[in-house]
Structure formats: structure tokens, C-alpha cells
Amino acid sequence: MDTRTRRRFLRASRVPRASALADGARTVGLRRLLRSGVEQPGQARRPVLVVVTLYGGNDGLSTVVPYTDGRYHDARAALAYDESEVLPLGEELGLNASMTGLHRLWRAGRLAVVRGVGYPDHDRSHFRSMDIWQSASPGRPKETGWLGRWLDTTDNDPLRAVSIGNVLPPMLVGDLTAGAAIPLAGLTRPPGIAQRTLALLGEPGAQDPPVQAQVAASIGDLASLAAAVGEPLAAAAAGAAGDAGDAGDAQQGPGTVLLRPNALAEQLGIVATCIEARLVTQVYEVSLGGFDTHAAAKAAQTGLLGQVDQAVSSFVDRLAGHEVDVTVMIYSEFGRRVRTNGSHGTDHGTAGPVLVAGTSVRGGFYGEQPDLADLDGEDLRSTTDFRSVYATVLANVLGADPRPILGGDHPAVPFLI
Known about the structure:
The chain is an alpha/beta fold.
């Protein structure tokens, strides 16, 4: 198959990153990823960072709840959680009652809650705020991500940073290289494309430029990845479905979430399999959407946080005795307004908590809890710059100097041993 025909097909198909590859972006074969732990065994023991992105703007006041504060109850009315609906953490704060696994990690000293995390001059646009979080550049837009710039300081090996999903997030894109994206479902053959045609796409032509040869090889690699992780993925999905119980039959409505097999658990199941296979990857990115809870927020928020809790706590437990030290960081692009809106939901806000879990985490509270008596208009005031959280994991997990990556000095937050 000639290069022009392959490029046209790739642009029209759903092959992850195909369009970018056709334009010459650097990529890797997935077979190479699966071989990396065998080929580079020493590097496979380096600490690992797992970044969990909660898309939509997670409501921090429904996650870490100031359940004794009268101002919280006055502002939230029916959305407020009372003492019976939280798991106490101390300092008159409690975790959402759906987060039993993370509460257990808190009691074991393996969960840190970094409070009031945000950035200067908040922007309530999902796209702009997420761009700021992923680029670590509040002042002016950058075309690179903070972990992409970390990749640039290493040996520029794309295997070091992997996103589980069809789209590579901007945080993993650097000037010199970018991470790799692994789709959950593998390669889906588009309608009307015969299997023989697909096989031909996986055979580089003698006249293909190197990048186009990589594109062809990546198609066969997707099938290899599915064979390697298909069984753990199916088990993760089945386990998540069992944990959801009757929640899968919940009614759908504005702002509610139909709890299906836990997508985040599926992604973290793949990550755990990769870590246990001793790959060289040091950074994994996974995500869960649905947190834009403008209406009927209480049920939706409780269900979503239950999915996060089940996925993350099971993942941490699974790898607790592993030779590789794993740290999980959970963040969202912004929090929500303090006061409920007219639809029993919450609107885009500013600061929120970042949760960090793992065996090397020094559990407890970090940063000041935003004061509900001292709001910035209708929003919480940030008390911790998000780049300080990044500086901490860059230095303590990835062994990097944060200053050139983040563009300045940002004091570390001592939540890691």
C-alpha cells in the first residue's frame, strides 16, 4: 500500500495518534514497550508516578468536606454532606463517605491531602484551565506539558511516559519528544475495511520513509498489546462491575452518572500490569470524566468519587509489596463554586484538593484549608500553588530538578518521604 493511501486511511480511521504520525510526529511500537522491562531491567526499578486526571472540575468541597462549618451548610443546603455522610479525617474535615478505600489509606498514613491547590488569576474555562494545569504555565500559553519537558531532560525515550487512552494529553508532549498513548480497546477495524487490507497496512513498504514505516508497525503492535493485557483488562472490568453492585441500574437524569464498569479501574489495571511486567515507563496518565456537575450534583458526585476510590485504592493495594515504589497523584482542572446553583448543582470554581497516595507518601494534611469566611467573590482562595505539588513529585519521584521544567522556584510540599 503506497504512502499516500495509508496516510489518507489513517486520517479517516480511529487509529490513535495516526494523524499526528502521518505528519511526522515521533512514536514507538507497543511491542517495544512490552519488551522494555526485559531489555532494560535496571531502569525498570525506578520509582513510578501515576497521574489521575478528573476531567470536568471535581467539587473539592464534596470530596474533602468541611462538615462542621455552618457557612458550608448555609451555602450548600441540600447538597451539603452532614457528619453521617463523611469519613472523618480530623481538623473538622471528612472524606466523602463513598471513599472508604482511600480513608483506609489515610488511616495507614499512605494518603496525603494537599488543600486549596490552584493557580494565580483563575480561569473558569475547562479548556484554558486544563491547559494551565497540563502545561504548568499560568501566565502565558505553552505548547509543551510539564511532564513532556521532564521527558526532554531524560534520554528522550517516549517509553518513559505513557497515557492509557486514545488521545495523548498535552502534559506528555515536550519539545524534543512525547509520550505514547495506549488505547483501552486496541485497534478497531473500521467498517468496510477488510482484514487483508488491515494486514497490508501493517507491512511497511520498501519505499516508505521511516516515520511511515513506524505507522505501519504500530498497527500490528496494537494487536500485540491487546493480547498482552486483554486478560487483566477483562478481569479489571469484571471486578469493577461486581463492585458497582446495583449502582449499574441507577436512573439517568441531568447531572447524574450511570455507573458502568469502572473505566478508571480498567486503566489502572493496565498500568498495574505494565508495572508488574517491569517496563521502563516512569510516568503513567489515566483519567475519568463526568465531574462537570451543574445539576443533581450530590448523587453524581458520590458515584464518581466511589469509582475513583475503588480504582485507586485497589491499585495501591495491588502494588503495595512490589519492588517499584509507586506514587498516585489525583487532580482536576478546578473546583466548584461554594454556593449551590438553582439546579441542585455547582458551577465552575477555583481551588480544590489534590490527593496523593502510595507507600512513600507521608500521610496527612498539607496547605491551609480555604476559609469559607474569606472568599474571593464566590470562590475559594488558593492557598497552595499547583506548581509546588509538581515540584515535589518531579524531585522526589522522578529525581529531576523542577526549576527548569517549571520555570522558576516553587517550594516543595513535604508529602513524600
